Amino acid sequence: MTWSDELCRIFGRDPEDGGLTLDELPSWVFSEDQPILTAMVTDCLVDGKPIDAEFRIVRADEVVRTIHMAGEPVLDTDGSTASMWAVLRDVSELRRSERAVRESRDTLRHQRRIARTERRLAVEVQEAVLPPWRGSLRLPARDGFPGAGPAADGAALDLAAHYLPSESSAQIGGDWYDALELPEGHTLLSVGGLTGHGVTATCGMAMLLGAVRGMAVAGIEPGALMGRLNQLLAVSSQPALVGAVCGRYDPRTRTLVWAQAGHPAPLLFRDGTGRPLRSPDGVLLGATTGAAYTQYEERLEPGDLLVLHTGRLARDTEGATERLLALAPRLTAAHGAQECVRTVAEAFGDEPRGHDACVLIAKVTGARA
Description:
alpha+beta, Beta-Lactamase, Phosphatase 2c, domain 1, 2 domains, 6-stranded antiparallel β-sheet, 5-stranded antiparallel β-sheet, rod-shaped, hydrolase, Bact_Sigma-Reg
C-alpha cells in the first residue's frame, strides 16, 4: 500500500513513518465498521468492482474521524485485477454538521408535537370551563337555586358572549367570560384575563373562575371577592397578573353591584349613546398583597345594554373602548344580545391581536315603567 502524506496526516501519523499495511488498517477501524472496509477491499480487488462507502477510525491520539473512501480496480491486460486505487477524504466535520441538523430537526419536530399537545390541552380546559351556551341566554332561569323565586317582570338579562382568538391560533390565553345564576335570583357577570399563554394560563384561569363562582354563590360581595382573589394569587405556586371585572345583578331592583381589578370598566348603552361606568378602586390581582377593592352600584333600566370585555379586542385598549362606544347606535337598535355580539365580532374580528379577547353582552329585557 502506498499512502500520500495527506492521508497519513488524516490518520494522525507522521508521513515519515509511512502508512499502514492492509492487514494493519482494520485495527484502526470501529469494530462495527470493519465489515464495511473488508467488503470494499474484497469487492474491488477480487470482484473488480468500484467502491464508495464510509467508515470510522480511532487514531492513536484517540481522535475519532469519519473517512469516505472511493476507488476503482486497475485491470491487467487479461482483465484480472492488478491493483486498486482509492481516494480517502476526512468527512468528519461534514457528518457532524449533518448530525447536528438532523438532531435540530428532530428537536424541532418534538417541540412542535409538544406545542400541539399543549394547545389541545389548553383548548380542552378552556372549553370545559367557559359557559357551554352559545347564542343568547336568559337569566335568571327561574329553575336554578331553591328559593330563588321568580324574577321581577321585565328585569331578566338577555346574555350573549364571544371569544376572539389572537393572531396566532397557537397562543391560547387565559381570558374568560362568565354568567351564572346565584341564590336569591341574582346573576353573576364576570370577565377577566391572566398574563401568559398555553396550558399554564388556561389552568390558572380555570382555578380563578372556579374561585369566583364559589365565592359569588356563597354571597360574597364583588369588592370583597376581588380582595380574596388577590389573596389567593398571593399564595399560588404560579404567580400571575390578572385583570378582572365582577358584577352581581339583582333583577328585582335592576341594580348592578360591581368591582374591578386593573380592568376596563363595563360600558353602558342607553338611548343610542354609551358611556363607561365609573370605576371603583382596584389594582391588578397579583400585583401587590393586601390591596383594597371597592365596589360601585349602578341602577339599570329595561332596554339598557352592558358590554363587558377583557380589554384586548384591539392592540390599544383605549382605542377599543372608543370604537365600542362608536357602535352605540347599532347596539342600542339591536333586537337582542346575540345581534349585539355579532356586531362587535364584525367590528373586531379581523383586528390583529397579540392576545385572545372576550366580550360579554347583557341586555335588560322588558319595558320601562
